[in-house]
Description:
Elements: E1 4-8, H1 21-45, E2 59-63, H2 65-75, H3 77-97, E3 103-116, E4 132-145, H4 149-216, H5 221-256, E5 262-266, H6 280-290, H7 292-313, E6 318-330, E7 335-346, H8 354-420, H9 426-460
Amino acid sequence: MSLSRKLIVIGVGVGISFSQLESVLAQSKLSSEADSQKQQQKNNSLQLPTSPNQVKIQQVRSLSLKQALELAAQNNRDLQIAALTLERSRSALQQAQAALLPTFGVNGELRQVGDQERPGDIIFEPESASPTFLSGTVEANYNLFTFGKRSAQIKAAQEQVKFEQLELARIRQQTRLDISSAYYDLQEADEQVKINRAAVENARIGLRDAQLLEGGGTGSKLDTIRASVQLKNAEQDLIQAQTEQDIASDKLTRILGLSETTDVAAAEPVQTAGQWNRSLEESIILAFQNRAELKQQSIQRNISSQQRQIALAEIRPTVSLFANYQALSELSNKGADGYAAGARVAWNFLDGGTASAAAKQEDANVKIAETRFADTRSQIRLEIEQAYKNLMANAKNIKTATAALEQAQEALELISFGYRRGATTQLEVNTAQNELTNAAGNKVKAILNYNRSLTSLRRAINDL
C-alpha cells in the first residue's frame, strides 16, 4: 500500500526591535496624556450641530486687541495644525535617527509533522508517530555602511523640523496680522454705525425743523420732502453699516476659533497703534534678515540636496553586520544548535535609471527653491515698500481728516442755525450733513488705515 506524506505545520513567531522601543514608549505616553486631555474636545469637533439653538448666538464677548491675540494663540486652528505638523516632523526625525542603532529580533516556531493515509483528509491518530519540532533564532543586525543614505535621511529630517518650526512662526505672525486686520475692520464697522446713527438723528432733526417751518409759513413743501428723503437715505446707510458690523464680528470670531454660539465686539476705541521710527531702507534690510519665508526656501534647498543623496545611494553598495544563534529540537529527543556571524554586502548597481531620474528631480527642486528664494525676496521688498508708503500717506491723512471734520461740524452748525431763521435752504443743510458724515468716516478710515499699514510693516519684519 502506497503512503502519501504531508507536513502539518503549526508556527508561532515573535519579533522585537529594541532600536525603536524607546521611541514607541515615549510616543505612547504622550498619546495617553493627550488623549485624556483632548478626547472630549475631539469628540465635539467631529460632531455637527443638529438644532438651531446649537448655532444661535448666546453671548457677545467684548475684547481688546491684546485679548483677541491671546485667544488666537490658544484656539486658532491654523496654529494648531502647524503645531501638530511640527510634532509629526519631530517623530519622523526620531524614526530616521533609529537607523543609527542596531536591531535585535527573536523568532520561534513550533512544528508538528504527521502521517496521512488518505489524501485530502487530515487525521491525527494516537498510535501514529507525529514528531514535534521547536526551533528558535536570535539575530542582531547593524547597517555599518550605507554610502551616505542614512546620514542624508537624518539631515533631511532635521532640516524638515527646522522648516516646520519656521512655518509655525510664519503662521503665528500671519495669524496675528489677520486678527489685527479683522479687529480694525470691526472697529471701522462700529464707527460707521455710530456715524450713521448720528446722521439719522441729524436727519430727523432736519425733518422736524422743515415741518415746523412749513407749518409756520416760512418753509416750503419741497424742503420737507427733501428732509424726508434725507432721513430715509440715512436710515438705509445705517442698516448697511449694521450689516457690515455683524459680518466683521463673524469674521473675527472665526479667526479666533471661538464657539459658534459666541460673537465678539471691539472694546477699544479707534486710535493710532504707535509710530514707526525706521527708514524704508532699514525696514527692508531687517525684513530680509528676519523673514521666515526666506529661511524656509534655503532649508528646502538643503532638503532637496539630501534627497538627491538618498536617491543616488540606492545604486551604491551597502554593508551590514549580523550575528545570530539558532536552535532546533524535537520535543522527544535531543536537538542541535549553532551560531553565525558575519557581514553582508548588497549592491543594486543596475536599476534601469530609477535612481538617476530621482536625483535629477531633486536637482530641479534645488533650482526651484533658489528661484522661489529670489521671488520671495522681491515680494517681501514690495510688501515693505507698500506698507511704508501707505503708512506715511495715512499719517498725513489723519491730520487732514481731523481738520476737515472740525470744519464740517462748524459748517453744519452755522447752516442749521441759518436754516431755522430762513437764511439757508434745506438742500444746504442736507449737503452739510453729508459732508460731516463723510468727514467723520474719512478720519476713522485714515486712523485705521494707518494702523493696518503699521501692522503690515511689523509683520513684514516678523515683529508682531
